[in-house]
Specification:
About 35% of the residues lie in helices and about 20% in strands. By secondary structure, it is an alpha/beta fold. The protein has a domain of about 170 residues: Spore Coat Polysaccharide Biosynthesis Protein SpsA, Chain A. It has a seven-stranded mixed beta sheet, sandwiched between helices. The radius of gyration is 18 Å and the shape is globular. The relative contact order is 0.16. Keywords: Cell membrane, Glycosyltransferase, Lipopolysaccharide biosynthesis, Membrane, Transferase, Transmembrane, Transmembrane helix. This is Dolichol-phosphate mannosyltransferase.
Length: about 250
């Protein structure tokens, strides 16, 4: 990857929320480069969500060697949805792609997700990764099946797996969404609410590179039940967006 300053602004921003993932930083950045180099002008935005390990130092060392890596830091951990939102708000690309920072999400699938949004020509607001062959524990997979089943039955969003961190979307579409903790798990339903299509891409899950999970666990059904009711209410209360034209004198 060239370390010279990009001539033009990035067309794609890769947002990676992390908390205490120091040993996974360098390997994941190398994989993102391998997947995207020569295809898009891109930036990588790591959102350091209140890490207490060497995550910040590892990022700073790599930033000194390259111009397209940025680090945002939360003084305290705000959670995954807050980290994704901070990254999207700071992004300069028209298209934003996200993936988890633990290495379970393979960056090799980023081009398929980004291309799905591009080919949608404005109709596709979100390309969502759908995990195949998940490497989580049996209990976590059971939780996800229950949560996804309940969510789909109530919201009818047509998505079998909203918990996958691999996603790509138009930045302007994401910023239209009402923000709340857990937003990333309801993106398909909320993007459909705004009248956009969803593209789905099967992705192959893999074990994390190192460390232990810092996000998730009970944040699948039990904590999210009130969010589910709230999103259902938002969908029910949605009115058609008026067609607006400017009248010139």
């Amino acid at each position: 990857m060239s370390t010279s300053q990009p001539v033009s602004p990035p067309s794609v921003s890769i947002v990676v929320p992390v908390r205490n993932e120091a040993d996974n930083i360098a390997p994941l950045i190398a994989e993102i480069d391998a997947a995207l180099d020569g295809r898009w002008a891109y930036e990588i935005i790591y959102v350091n969500d209140g890490s207490t390990d060497a995550t910040g130092e590892r990022l700073a060392a790599i930033m000194a060697q390259r111009s397209n890596l940025r680090q945002l830091r939360h003084a305290r951990s705000g959670g995954q949805s807050a980290a994704v939102r901070s990254g999207v708000r700071a992004a300069r690309g028209v298209i934003v792609a996200t993936l988890d920072g633990d290495g379970q999400n393979n960056p090799a699938f980023l081009p398929d997700l980004i291309s799905a949004v591009e080919k949608g020509a404005g109709r596709v607001g979100l390309a969502a990764g759908q995990r195949v062959g998940r490497k989580d524990t049996g209990f976590k997979k059971f939780q996800s099946r229950v949560a996804n089943g309940v969510r789909n039955a109530i919201l009818k969003d047509g998505t079998r797996d909203t918990g996958c961190g691999l996603k790509a979307f138009r930045r302007e579409v994401f910023l239209m969404m009402p923000y709340f903790d857990g937003l990333h798990r309801f993106l398909p339903a909320l993007v459909r609410r705004e009248g956009y299509d969803i593209a789905y891409v099967d992705v192959i899950d893999r074990p994390r590179h190192s460390g232990v999970s810092n996000y998730g666990f009970f944040d699948r059904l039990w904590i999210g039940i009130m969010d589910l009711v709230g999103v259902w209410w938002l969908i029910r209360r949605k009115k058609p967006t008026p067609e607006v034209t400017e009248v010139n004198a």
